[in-house]
Amino acid sequence: GRTLWGYRTDYVFTRRSPADSGYSSRFGSSPDSSLSRRPAISRAALSSTTLAQPIAENAASPSTNGASSITYPSFSRSSTSGIPSTSSTPFTSSTRFDIASPPQASISPSLSRRRSDYIDQSQEAVSGLQNRPIDYPELSTQVIRPPPAVASPALERQDNRPRLPSYSTSSTSQGQLKAPTPPRIESYWPVTYWADSRIGISGLRNLGNTCYMNAPIQCLSASPPFARFFNEGRWKSAINFTNTLGSKGKLTGAFAKLVHAMWANEIPHQTPHDFKASHTICSLNSQYVGTDQHDSQEFLSFLLDGIHEDLNRVVVRQPWTKTPEEEAELEKLPPQIASEQEWRAWKARNDSVIVDYFQGQFRNQMKCLTCNKTSTTYNTFSILSVPIPSGRSGKMPLQRCLDAFFNTEVMEKDDAWDCPQCKQKQRASKQLSLARLPPILVIHLKRFEANGRFSDKIDTFVDFPLKSLDFTSYMPPPLPAGADHGRLNGGVPMSPDDPRSQMPPYKYDLYGVTNHTGNLSSGHYTAYVASGGGWKYCDDSTIKDVDHKQVVSQKAYVLFYKRTKA
Protein backbone atom coordinates (compact mmCIF):
# COMPACT_ATOMS: atom_id res chain seq x y z
CA GLY A 1 0.00 0.00 0.00
CA ARG A 2 0.93 3.71 -0.18
CA THR A 3 1.10 6.39 2.42
CA LEU A 4 -0.53 9.34 0.65
CA TRP A 5 -0.82 12.63 2.62
CA GLY A 6 -1.34 10.81 5.87
CA TYR A 7 -3.91 8.32 4.52
CA ARG A 8 -3.15 4.72 3.72
CA THR A 9 -4.92 3.25 0.75
CA ASP A 10 -4.38 0.90 -2.13
CA TYR A 11 -5.51 3.03 -5.07
CA VAL A 12 -6.85 6.51 -5.33
CA PHE A 13 -9.40 7.00 -8.10
CA THR A 14 -11.18 10.03 -6.78
CA ARG A 15 -11.34 12.17 -3.69
CA ARG A 16 -14.22 11.30 -1.40
CA SER A 17 -15.82 13.45 1.20
CA PRO A 18 -15.50 12.52 4.84
CA ALA A 19 -19.17 11.60 4.89
CA ASP A 20 -18.54 8.88 2.29
CA SER A 21 -15.26 7.59 3.70
CA GLY A 22 -16.85 5.14 6.08
CA TYR A 23 -18.57 3.15 3.33
CA SER A 24 -16.95 0.35 1.42
CA SER A 25 -16.53 1.25 -2.22
CA ARG A 26 -15.53 -1.23 -4.89
CA PHE A 27 -13.61 0.50 -7.65
CA GLY A 28 -12.57 -2.36 -9.87
CA SER A 29 -10.67 -5.62 -9.91
CA SER A 30 -7.01 -6.59 -9.84
CA PRO A 31 -5.40 -9.81 -10.97
CA ASP A 32 -5.57 -11.25 -7.46
CA SER A 33 -8.35 -9.60 -5.55
CA SER A 34 -11.02 -6.88 -5.43
CA LEU A 35 -9.88 -3.50 -4.30
CA SER A 36 -11.67 -1.70 -1.52
CA ARG A 37 -10.98 1.51 0.31
CA ARG A 38 -9.80 1.22 3.87
CA PRO A 39 -11.80 2.79 6.67
CA ALA A 40 -11.15 6.46 7.35
CA ILE A 41 -8.47 7.28 9.84
CA SER A 42 -9.74 9.14 12.85
CA ARG A 43 -8.78 12.77 13.29
CA ALA A 44 -6.79 11.99 16.42
CA ALA A 45 -4.70 9.38 14.64
CA LEU A 46 -4.30 11.58 11.64
CA SER A 47 -2.90 14.42 13.67
CA SER A 48 0.03 12.26 14.80
CA THR A 49 0.87 10.86 11.39
CA THR A 50 4.52 11.30 10.45
CA LEU A 51 5.33 12.40 6.95
CA ALA A 52 8.08 10.44 5.26
CA GLN A 53 11.33 11.96 4.15
CA PRO A 54 11.79 12.99 0.53
CA ILE A 55 12.90 10.28 -1.92
CA ALA A 56 16.50 10.45 -2.95
CA GLU A 57 17.27 11.19 -6.56
CA ASN A 58 19.18 7.85 -7.02
CA ALA A 59 16.58 5.75 -5.24
CA ALA A 60 15.17 2.88 -7.21
CA SER A 61 11.53 2.80 -8.10
CA PRO A 62 9.48 0.20 -6.21
CA SER A 63 8.93 -2.92 -8.18
CA THR A 64 5.62 -3.85 -6.65
CA ASN A 65 2.78 -1.79 -5.37
CA GLY A 66 2.55 -1.90 -1.60
CA ALA A 67 6.08 -3.25 -1.05
CA SER A 68 7.28 -0.13 0.66
CA SER A 69 5.99 3.26 1.73
CA ILE A 70 6.27 6.14 -0.71
CA THR A 71 6.89 9.43 0.95
CA TYR A 72 6.29 12.75 -0.80
CA PRO A 73 7.97 16.04 0.02
CA SER A 74 5.94 18.59 1.86
CA PHE A 75 5.37 22.01 0.37
CA SER A 76 3.38 25.08 1.10
CA ARG A 77 1.28 26.93 -1.42
CA SER A 78 2.61 30.43 -2.03
CA SER A 79 0.47 33.49 -1.60
CA THR A 80 -1.15 35.07 -4.61
CA SER A 81 1.27 37.47 -6.18
CA GLY A 82 0.61 41.07 -5.51
CA ILE A 83 -2.01 40.48 -2.79
CA PRO A 84 -0.93 41.08 0.80
CA SER A 85 -1.38 38.34 3.33
CA THR A 86 -4.37 38.67 5.59
CA SER A 87 -4.31 35.24 7.15
CA SER A 88 -4.80 35.19 10.90
CA THR A 89 -3.98 31.45 11.35
CA PRO A 90 -1.01 30.71 9.08
CA PHE A 91 0.44 27.23 8.82
CA THR A 92 4.01 27.12 10.14
CA SER A 93 6.84 25.33 8.39
CA SER A 94 7.26 21.98 10.15
CA THR A 95 7.62 18.32 9.39
CA ARG A 96 4.65 17.74 11.71
CA PHE A 97 1.44 19.74 11.64
CA ASP A 98 -2.03 19.40 12.94
CA ILE A 99 -5.10 19.53 10.65
CA ALA A 100 -7.26 22.26 12.08
CA SER A 101 -10.81 21.50 13.00
CA PRO A 102 -13.44 22.88 10.63
CA PRO A 103 -14.34 26.45 11.61
CA GLN A 104 -17.60 27.03 13.37
CA ALA A 105 -20.34 28.14 10.98
CA SER A 106 -20.89 31.84 11.10
CA ILE A 107 -24.34 33.18 11.83
CA SER A 108 -23.76 35.97 9.34
CA PRO A 109 -21.00 34.81 6.99
CA SER A 110 -18.99 37.50 5.29
CA LEU A 111 -17.97 37.46 1.66
CA SER A 112 -14.38 38.13 2.74
CA ARG A 113 -14.08 35.09 5.08
CA ARG A 114 -10.75 33.31 4.51
CA ARG A 115 -10.97 29.66 3.51
CA SER A 116 -8.67 28.36 6.27
CA ASP A 117 -10.77 25.20 6.64
CA TYR A 118 -9.82 23.89 3.24
CA ILE A 119 -6.38 22.80 1.98
CA ASP A 120 -5.82 21.41 -1.48
CA GLN A 121 -3.58 18.51 -0.38
CA SER A 122 -2.83 17.48 -3.94
CA GLN A 123 -0.55 20.48 -4.32
CA GLU A 124 1.70 19.36 -1.46
CA ALA A 125 3.70 17.09 -3.75
CA VAL A 126 4.54 19.70 -6.37
CA SER A 127 7.60 21.40 -4.87
CA GLY A 128 9.84 21.39 -1.87
CA LEU A 129 9.08 24.91 -0.80
CA GLN A 130 8.53 25.73 2.82
CA ASN A 131 4.94 25.87 4.10
CA ARG A 132 3.59 29.40 3.91
CA PRO A 133 0.28 30.94 4.77
CA ILE A 134 -2.44 30.48 2.15
CA ASP A 135 -3.95 33.85 1.50
CA TYR A 136 -7.09 34.53 -0.49
CA PRO A 137 -8.21 37.92 -1.79
CA GLU A 138 -11.00 39.65 0.00
CA LEU A 139 -14.17 39.63 -2.06
CA SER A 140 -16.00 42.88 -2.52
CA THR A 141 -19.56 43.62 -3.39
CA GLN A 142 -18.40 46.50 -5.60
CA VAL A 143 -17.86 46.10 -9.33
CA ILE A 144 -14.14 45.56 -9.96
CA ARG A 145 -14.02 46.41 -13.63
CA PRO A 146 -15.17 49.85 -14.75
CA PRO A 147 -18.59 50.21 -16.38
CA PRO A 148 -18.74 50.53 -20.16
CA ALA A 149 -18.48 53.97 -21.63
CA VAL A 150 -21.71 55.85 -22.27
CA ALA A 151 -22.79 55.76 -25.89
CA SER A 152 -22.83 59.00 -27.79
CA PRO A 153 -26.25 60.61 -28.34
CA ALA A 154 -26.02 59.78 -32.02
CA LEU A 155 -25.62 56.07 -31.31
CA GLU A 156 -27.90 55.90 -28.31
CA ARG A 157 -31.18 54.15 -28.96
CA GLN A 158 -34.09 56.44 -28.24
CA ASP A 159 -37.12 54.90 -26.55
CA ASN A 160 -40.10 56.80 -27.85
CA ARG A 161 -42.75 54.27 -26.96
CA PRO A 162 -45.92 55.88 -25.54
CA ARG A 163 -46.48 55.46 -21.86
CA LEU A 164 -49.37 56.38 -19.65
CA PRO A 165 -48.31 59.13 -17.24
CA SER A 166 -48.82 58.25 -13.61
CA TYR A 167 -51.56 59.81 -11.55
CA SER A 168 -50.54 62.63 -9.30
CA THR A 169 -52.01 63.67 -6.01
CA SER A 170 -51.82 66.92 -4.12
CA SER A 171 -52.25 67.50 -0.42
CA THR A 172 -54.60 69.94 1.17
CA SER A 173 -53.74 72.28 4.01
CA GLN A 174 -55.17 69.74 6.45
CA GLY A 175 -52.76 67.10 5.17
CA GLN A 176 -55.42 65.07 3.37
CA LEU A 177 -54.94 63.93 -0.20
CA LYS A 178 -57.20 65.15 -2.94
CA ALA A 179 -58.61 62.84 -5.59
CA PRO A 180 -56.00 61.83 -8.19
CA THR A 181 -55.69 64.18 -11.13
CA PRO A 182 -56.24 62.49 -14.51
CA PRO A 183 -52.98 62.27 -16.48
CA ARG A 184 -52.57 65.00 -19.07
CA ILE A 185 -50.14 66.03 -21.77
CA GLU A 186 -48.71 69.39 -20.75
CA SER A 187 -48.74 71.41 -23.96
CA TYR A 188 -49.53 75.11 -23.75
CA TRP A 189 -50.19 77.38 -26.70
CA PRO A 190 -51.50 80.91 -26.16
CA VAL A 191 -54.88 81.71 -27.69
CA THR A 192 -54.85 85.29 -28.96
CA TYR A 193 -56.73 87.77 -31.08
CA TRP A 194 -55.09 88.65 -34.37
CA ALA A 195 -55.27 91.67 -36.63
CA ASP A 196 -55.27 91.68 -40.42
CA SER A 197 -51.80 90.69 -41.57
CA ARG A 198 -50.15 89.18 -44.60
CA ILE A 199 -50.28 85.40 -44.49
CA GLY A 200 -48.22 82.71 -46.15
CA ILE A 201 -50.22 81.35 -49.04
CA SER A 202 -49.68 78.84 -51.82
CA GLY A 203 -51.93 77.10 -54.32
CA LEU A 204 -52.91 73.44 -53.90
CA ARG A 205 -52.91 71.14 -56.89
CA ASN A 206 -56.11 69.24 -57.63
CA LEU A 207 -55.37 65.50 -57.47
CA GLY A 208 -58.73 64.54 -58.98
CA ASN A 209 -61.81 66.18 -57.47
CA THR A 210 -59.84 67.12 -54.34
CA CYS A 211 -61.10 70.71 -54.38
CA TYR A 212 -63.33 69.74 -51.43
CA MET A 213 -60.05 69.37 -49.45
CA ASN A 214 -58.15 72.32 -50.88
CA ALA A 215 -60.73 75.02 -50.09
CA PRO A 216 -61.12 74.43 -46.31
CA ILE A 217 -57.36 73.86 -45.91
CA GLN A 218 -56.77 77.33 -47.38
CA CYS A 219 -59.11 78.83 -44.77
CA LEU A 220 -57.49 76.94 -41.87
CA SER A 221 -54.03 78.01 -43.04
CA ALA A 222 -55.26 81.62 -43.12
CA SER A 223 -55.78 81.52 -39.31
CA PRO A 224 -52.34 82.86 -38.19
CA PRO A 225 -52.26 81.82 -34.49
CA PHE A 226 -53.63 78.39 -35.34
CA ALA A 227 -51.24 77.96 -38.30
CA ARG A 228 -48.21 79.02 -36.21
CA PHE A 229 -48.88 76.15 -33.82
CA PHE A 230 -48.06 73.77 -36.70
CA ASN A 231 -45.43 75.90 -38.45
CA GLU A 232 -43.33 76.13 -35.29
CA GLY A 233 -43.54 72.40 -34.58
CA ARG A 234 -45.42 72.76 -31.29
CA TRP A 235 -47.76 69.95 -32.33
CA LYS A 236 -44.95 67.36 -32.04
CA SER A 237 -44.87 67.49 -28.24
CA ALA A 238 -48.67 67.46 -28.01
CA ILE A 239 -49.43 64.16 -29.78
CA ASN A 240 -51.50 61.74 -27.70
CA PHE A 241 -50.11 58.34 -28.71
CA THR A 242 -52.42 56.42 -26.37
CA ASN A 243 -55.71 57.74 -27.74
CA THR A 244 -57.37 54.95 -29.72
CA LEU A 245 -59.68 57.48 -31.42
CA GLY A 246 -56.74 59.32 -32.99
CA SER A 247 -54.20 58.47 -35.68
CA LYS A 248 -51.20 58.77 -33.30
CA GLY A 249 -50.07 61.88 -35.14
CA LYS A 250 -50.31 60.69 -38.76
CA LEU A 251 -53.14 63.03 -39.73
CA THR A 252 -51.78 65.96 -37.72
CA GLY A 253 -48.26 65.47 -39.05
CA ALA A 254 -49.47 65.43 -42.66
CA PHE A 255 -51.54 68.57 -42.08
CA ALA A 256 -48.63 70.35 -40.36
CA LYS A 257 -46.28 69.47 -43.22
CA LEU A 258 -48.70 70.87 -45.78
CA VAL A 259 -49.39 74.11 -43.88
CA HIS A 260 -45.66 74.64 -43.32
CA ALA A 261 -45.02 74.29 -47.06
CA MET A 262 -47.85 76.70 -47.87
CA TRP A 263 -46.41 79.37 -45.57
CA ALA A 264 -42.87 78.90 -46.94
CA ASN A 265 -43.86 80.61 -50.24
CA GLU A 266 -41.10 78.72 -52.04
CA ILE A 267 -43.19 77.54 -55.00
CA PRO A 268 -46.47 78.81 -56.52
CA HIS A 269 -48.45 75.71 -55.54
CA GLN A 270 -48.10 72.54 -53.48
CA THR A 271 -48.98 68.98 -54.43
CA PRO A 272 -50.69 67.42 -51.39
CA HIS A 273 -49.85 63.80 -52.26
CA ASP A 274 -48.69 62.95 -48.73
CA PHE A 275 -51.77 64.52 -47.18
CA LYS A 276 -54.20 62.43 -49.22
CA ALA A 277 -51.97 59.34 -49.32
CA SER A 278 -53.22 55.94 -48.23
CA HIS A 279 -51.43 56.16 -44.87
CA THR A 280 -53.24 59.37 -43.85
CA ILE A 281 -56.64 60.59 -45.11
CA CYS A 282 -57.59 57.53 -47.12
CA SER A 283 -56.52 55.08 -44.42
CA LEU A 284 -58.48 56.95 -41.75
CA ASN A 285 -61.67 57.32 -43.80
CA SER A 286 -62.24 54.97 -46.71
CA GLN A 287 -64.82 57.26 -48.34
CA TYR A 288 -61.98 59.53 -49.45
CA VAL A 289 -60.29 56.77 -51.45
CA GLY A 290 -60.52 57.41 -55.17
CA THR A 291 -61.51 60.53 -57.07
CA ASP A 292 -65.16 60.99 -56.11
CA GLN A 293 -66.45 64.43 -55.17
CA HIS A 294 -67.32 64.96 -51.49
CA ASP A 295 -68.90 67.59 -49.29
CA SER A 296 -66.36 70.20 -48.17
CA GLN A 297 -68.07 70.84 -44.81
CA GLU A 298 -68.07 67.11 -44.00
CA PHE A 299 -64.36 66.91 -44.77
CA LEU A 300 -63.67 69.96 -42.59
CA SER A 301 -65.54 68.34 -39.70
CA PHE A 302 -63.57 65.10 -40.19
CA LEU A 303 -60.27 67.01 -40.25
CA LEU A 304 -60.98 69.04 -37.09
CA ASP A 305 -62.18 65.97 -35.19
CA GLY A 306 -59.12 63.95 -36.26
CA ILE A 307 -56.65 66.65 -35.23
CA HIS A 308 -58.49 67.06 -31.92
CA GLU A 309 -58.14 63.36 -31.10
CA ASP A 310 -54.44 63.42 -32.04
CA LEU A 311 -53.80 66.45 -29.81
CA ASN A 312 -56.17 65.68 -26.93
CA ARG A 313 -54.24 66.57 -23.77
CA VAL A 314 -56.33 64.17 -21.67
CA VAL A 315 -54.63 60.77 -21.62
CA VAL A 316 -57.21 58.87 -19.56
CA ARG A 317 -60.83 59.92 -19.95
CA GLN A 318 -62.81 59.51 -16.78
CA PRO A 319 -66.44 58.30 -16.94
CA TRP A 320 -68.84 61.19 -17.24
CA THR A 321 -72.32 60.57 -15.86
CA LYS A 322 -74.78 62.57 -13.80
CA THR A 323 -77.18 61.27 -11.19
CA PRO A 324 -80.82 62.47 -11.19
CA GLU A 325 -79.98 64.53 -8.11
CA GLU A 326 -77.12 66.26 -9.95
CA GLU A 327 -79.34 66.97 -12.94
CA ALA A 328 -81.98 68.47 -10.65
CA GLU A 329 -79.33 70.68 -9.04
CA LEU A 330 -78.11 71.78 -12.48
CA GLU A 331 -81.61 72.98 -13.36
CA LYS A 332 -81.56 75.35 -10.38
CA LEU A 333 -78.31 77.07 -11.35
CA PRO A 334 -78.14 80.26 -13.43
CA PRO A 335 -77.42 79.37 -17.07
CA GLN A 336 -74.04 81.11 -16.95
CA ILE A 337 -72.84 78.95 -14.04
CA ALA A 338 -74.51 75.76 -15.28
CA SER A 339 -72.90 76.08 -18.71
CA GLU A 340 -69.49 76.76 -17.13
CA GLN A 341 -69.85 73.66 -14.96
CA GLU A 342 -70.72 71.52 -17.98
CA TRP A 343 -67.87 73.04 -19.98
CA ARG A 344 -65.35 72.08 -17.30
CA ALA A 345 -66.76 68.55 -17.29
CA TRP A 346 -66.32 68.42 -21.07
CA LYS A 347 -62.74 69.71 -20.92
CA ALA A 348 -61.87 67.11 -18.30
CA ARG A 349 -62.22 64.60 -21.14
CA ASN A 350 -61.57 66.72 -24.26
CA ASP A 351 -58.91 69.41 -24.32
CA SER A 352 -56.85 70.36 -27.36
CA VAL A 353 -55.88 73.27 -29.59
CA ILE A 354 -59.05 72.53 -31.58
CA VAL A 355 -61.13 72.98 -28.42
CA ASP A 356 -59.23 76.19 -27.65
CA TYR A 357 -59.95 77.81 -31.02
CA PHE A 358 -63.02 76.20 -32.58
CA GLN A 359 -65.35 74.68 -30.00
CA GLY A 360 -68.40 76.42 -28.57
CA GLN A 361 -71.38 75.22 -26.55
CA PHE A 362 -75.14 74.89 -27.09
CA ARG A 363 -77.83 75.05 -24.43
CA ASN A 364 -80.87 72.93 -25.28
CA GLN A 365 -83.85 73.22 -22.93
CA MET A 366 -87.07 71.21 -23.03
CA LYS A 367 -90.04 72.60 -21.10
CA CYS A 368 -93.32 70.82 -20.45
CA LEU A 369 -96.22 73.14 -21.34
CA THR A 370 -98.42 71.37 -18.78
CA CYS A 371 -96.37 71.29 -15.56
CA ASN A 372 -93.47 73.60 -16.56
CA LYS A 373 -90.90 70.88 -15.81
CA THR A 374 -87.61 71.65 -17.56
CA SER A 375 -84.70 69.52 -18.69
CA THR A 376 -81.53 71.23 -19.91
CA THR A 377 -78.63 69.66 -21.75
CA TYR A 378 -75.37 71.20 -22.96
CA ASN A 379 -73.55 70.12 -26.12
CA THR A 380 -70.40 71.30 -27.84
CA PHE A 381 -69.91 72.19 -31.50
CA SER A 382 -67.03 73.02 -33.83
CA ILE A 383 -69.17 74.08 -36.81
CA LEU A 384 -72.42 76.02 -36.45
CA SER A 385 -74.77 74.66 -39.15
CA VAL A 386 -77.66 77.06 -39.76
CA PRO A 387 -80.65 76.58 -42.07
CA ILE A 388 -81.55 78.83 -45.00
CA PRO A 389 -85.24 79.76 -44.66
CA SER A 390 -87.32 79.40 -47.80
CA GLY A 391 -90.12 81.53 -49.21
CA ARG A 392 -88.20 84.73 -49.81
CA SER A 393 -86.75 86.02 -53.04
CA GLY A 394 -83.64 88.12 -53.29
CA LYS A 395 -80.95 88.23 -50.63
CA MET A 396 -81.34 86.48 -47.28
CA PRO A 397 -79.60 88.20 -44.34
CA LEU A 398 -77.46 85.89 -42.26
CA GLN A 399 -79.34 87.22 -39.23
CA ARG A 400 -82.52 85.50 -40.45
CA CYS A 401 -80.67 82.19 -40.74
CA LEU A 402 -79.49 82.55 -37.15
CA ASP A 403 -82.98 83.48 -35.95
CA ALA A 404 -84.42 80.40 -37.63
CA PHE A 405 -81.79 78.24 -35.97
CA PHE A 406 -82.44 79.59 -32.46
CA ASN A 407 -86.21 79.83 -32.85
CA THR A 408 -88.36 78.18 -30.16
CA GLU A 409 -89.97 74.99 -31.46
CA VAL A 410 -93.15 73.36 -30.13
CA MET A 411 -92.99 69.57 -29.79
CA GLU A 412 -96.42 67.92 -30.11
CA LYS A 413 -98.32 64.93 -31.53
CA ASP A 414 -95.76 62.34 -32.64
CA ASP A 415 -92.93 64.60 -31.49
CA ALA A 416 -94.40 65.23 -28.02
CA TRP A 417 -92.00 65.13 -25.07
CA ASP A 418 -92.15 62.30 -22.54
CA CYS A 419 -92.33 64.47 -19.43
CA PRO A 420 -90.58 62.82 -16.44
CA GLN A 421 -92.90 64.62 -14.00
CA CYS A 422 -96.22 64.02 -15.78
CA LYS A 423 -95.15 60.46 -16.60
CA GLN A 424 -96.63 60.75 -20.09
CA LYS A 425 -96.10 62.49 -23.42
CA GLN A 426 -96.93 66.18 -23.30
CA ARG A 427 -96.70 69.23 -25.53
CA ALA A 428 -93.38 70.91 -24.85
CA SER A 429 -91.23 73.76 -26.08
CA LYS A 430 -87.68 73.24 -27.33
CA GLN A 431 -85.34 76.20 -27.01
CA LEU A 432 -81.85 76.04 -28.52
CA SER A 433 -79.46 78.83 -27.56
CA LEU A 434 -75.77 79.59 -27.38
CA ALA A 435 -73.98 79.13 -24.07
CA ARG A 436 -70.38 79.64 -25.18
CA LEU A 437 -68.66 81.07 -28.27
CA PRO A 438 -65.17 80.16 -29.57
CA PRO A 439 -62.40 82.47 -30.83
CA ILE A 440 -62.93 81.11 -34.38
CA LEU A 441 -66.58 80.69 -35.34
CA VAL A 442 -67.23 78.49 -38.38
CA ILE A 443 -70.76 78.91 -39.83
CA HIS A 444 -72.06 76.34 -42.28
CA LEU A 445 -74.93 77.43 -44.56
CA LYS A 446 -77.06 74.33 -45.08
CA ARG A 447 -77.47 74.54 -48.85
CA PHE A 448 -78.12 70.84 -49.36
CA GLU A 449 -81.27 69.13 -48.14
CA ALA A 450 -82.21 65.50 -48.59
CA ASN A 451 -84.90 64.71 -51.15
CA GLY A 452 -85.25 60.96 -51.32
CA ARG A 453 -82.09 59.40 -52.74
CA PHE A 454 -80.78 62.76 -53.88
CA SER A 455 -79.94 66.14 -52.37
CA ASP A 456 -81.35 69.41 -53.57
CA LYS A 457 -79.26 72.55 -53.43
CA ILE A 458 -80.61 75.84 -52.08
CA ASP A 459 -79.13 78.63 -54.21
CA THR A 460 -80.47 81.48 -52.07
CA PHE A 461 -78.10 84.44 -51.82
CA VAL A 462 -77.17 84.75 -48.12
CA ASP A 463 -75.90 88.22 -47.31
CA PHE A 464 -73.31 88.14 -44.52
CA PRO A 465 -71.21 90.99 -43.05
CA LEU A 466 -67.46 91.27 -43.51
CA LYS A 467 -67.10 93.13 -40.20
CA SER A 468 -68.72 93.17 -36.76
CA LEU A 469 -71.09 90.21 -36.88
CA ASP A 470 -72.70 90.57 -33.45
CA PHE A 471 -73.74 87.48 -31.46
CA THR A 472 -74.31 89.26 -28.15
CA SER A 473 -78.11 88.91 -28.34
CA TYR A 474 -77.80 85.13 -28.73
CA MET A 475 -75.70 84.73 -25.60
CA PRO A 476 -76.90 84.69 -21.97
CA PRO A 477 -76.44 88.02 -20.17
CA PRO A 478 -73.58 88.46 -17.68
CA LEU A 479 -74.15 87.52 -14.06
CA PRO A 480 -75.46 90.35 -11.86
CA ALA A 481 -73.03 92.16 -9.61
CA GLY A 482 -73.97 90.23 -6.45
CA ALA A 483 -73.76 86.77 -8.06
CA ASP A 484 -71.04 84.22 -7.41
CA HIS A 485 -68.52 85.03 -10.16
CA GLY A 486 -65.98 82.72 -8.53
CA ARG A 487 -67.67 79.72 -10.12
CA LEU A 488 -66.95 81.01 -13.62
CA ASN A 489 -63.84 79.83 -15.45
CA GLY A 490 -62.99 77.52 -12.58
CA GLY A 491 -62.65 80.49 -10.24
CA VAL A 492 -59.66 81.84 -12.23
CA PRO A 493 -60.12 85.29 -13.82
CA MET A 494 -59.53 85.18 -17.59
CA SER A 495 -57.51 87.89 -19.25
CA PRO A 496 -59.44 90.32 -21.47
CA ASP A 497 -56.77 89.61 -24.10
CA ASP A 498 -57.95 86.01 -24.32
CA PRO A 499 -60.68 85.56 -27.00
CA ARG A 500 -62.10 82.62 -25.01
CA SER A 501 -63.36 85.03 -22.36
CA GLN A 502 -67.15 84.74 -22.14
CA MET A 503 -67.85 88.41 -21.61
CA PRO A 504 -69.72 90.70 -24.03
CA PRO A 505 -69.52 92.00 -26.63
CA TYR A 506 -69.31 88.98 -28.94
CA LYS A 507 -68.33 90.48 -32.30
CA TYR A 508 -66.68 88.73 -35.23
CA ASP A 509 -64.92 89.67 -38.50
CA LEU A 510 -64.86 87.50 -41.60
CA TYR A 511 -61.48 86.16 -42.76
CA GLY A 512 -62.31 83.09 -44.87
CA VAL A 513 -65.06 81.70 -47.13
CA THR A 514 -65.50 78.35 -48.83
CA ASN A 515 -67.58 78.62 -52.02
CA HIS A 516 -69.48 75.98 -53.98
CA THR A 517 -70.72 76.02 -57.57
CA GLY A 518 -72.74 73.34 -59.35
CA ASN A 519 -74.38 70.44 -57.52
CA LEU A 520 -73.09 68.07 -54.86
CA SER A 521 -71.95 65.34 -57.26
CA SER A 522 -70.39 67.50 -59.96
CA GLY A 523 -69.67 70.83 -58.29
CA HIS A 524 -66.48 72.72 -57.56
CA TYR A 525 -65.08 74.34 -54.39
CA THR A 526 -63.00 77.51 -54.13
CA ALA A 527 -62.00 79.80 -51.26
CA TYR A 528 -61.51 83.45 -50.32
CA VAL A 529 -59.00 84.32 -47.57
CA ALA A 530 -58.05 87.66 -46.01
CA SER A 531 -54.41 88.74 -46.22
CA GLY A 532 -52.72 92.07 -45.50
CA GLY A 533 -55.93 94.10 -45.54
CA GLY A 534 -57.05 92.58 -48.86
CA TRP A 535 -58.50 89.32 -50.14
CA LYS A 536 -57.10 86.37 -52.10
CA TYR A 537 -59.04 84.02 -54.35
CA CYS A 538 -57.89 80.39 -54.15
CA ASP A 539 -58.93 78.06 -56.98
CA ASP A 540 -56.79 74.95 -56.47
CA SER A 541 -53.36 75.89 -57.92
CA THR A 542 -54.41 79.44 -58.81
CA ILE A 543 -54.04 82.32 -56.35
CA LYS A 544 -55.03 85.87 -57.27
CA ASP A 545 -56.08 89.15 -55.63
CA VAL A 546 -59.76 90.08 -55.59
CA ASP A 547 -61.88 92.99 -54.40
CA HIS A 548 -63.71 92.56 -51.10
CA LYS A 549 -67.05 93.06 -52.90
CA GLN A 550 -66.56 89.72 -54.64
CA VAL A 551 -66.26 87.85 -51.34
CA VAL A 552 -69.97 88.11 -50.46
CA SER A 553 -71.63 86.03 -53.16
CA GLN A 554 -74.36 83.51 -53.84
CA LYS A 555 -71.72 80.76 -53.87
CA ALA A 556 -70.79 81.12 -50.18
CA TYR A 557 -71.02 77.79 -48.33
CA VAL A 558 -68.84 77.87 -45.16
CA LEU A 559 -67.91 81.13 -43.39
CA PHE A 560 -64.87 81.58 -41.12
CA TYR A 561 -65.16 84.37 -38.53
CA LYS A 562 -62.62 85.49 -35.92
CA ARG A 563 -63.57 87.17 -32.67
CA THR A 564 -62.44 90.78 -32.35
CA LYS A 565 -61.31 92.57 -29.24
CA ALA A 566 -63.78 95.07 -27.78
From TrEMBL:
Entry annotated with the keyword Protease: yes
Segments for region (Disordered): 19-38, 57-181, 480-499
Gene Ontology MF: a single term: cysteine-type deubiquitinase activity
Gene Ontology biological process terms in this record: protein deubiquitination; proteolysis
UniProt keyword annotations, A-Z: Hydrolase, Protease, Thiol protease, Ubl conjugation pathway
The protein's Enzyme Commission number: 3.4.19.12
Keyword field contains Lipid metabolism: no
Catalysed reaction, written as an equation: Thiol-dependent hydrolysis of ester, thioester, amide, peptide and isopeptide bonds formed by the C-terminal Gly of ubiquitin (a 76-residue protein attached to proteins as an intracellular targeting signal)
Pfam families referenced in this protein's UniProt entry, alphabetically: UCH
Extent of Polar residues compositional bias: 22-36, 60-72, 119-130, 166-176
Boundaries of every USP domain copy: 202-564
Tree of life domain: Eukaryota
UniProt-listed PANTHER family: UBIQUITIN CARBOXYL-TERMINAL HYDROLASE, UBIQUITIN CARBOXYL-TERMINAL HYDROLASE 4-RELATED
Family the entry assigns: Belongs to the peptidase C19 family.
Protein name in UniProt: Ubiquitin carboxyl-terminal hydrolase
Organism name: Moniliophthora roreri
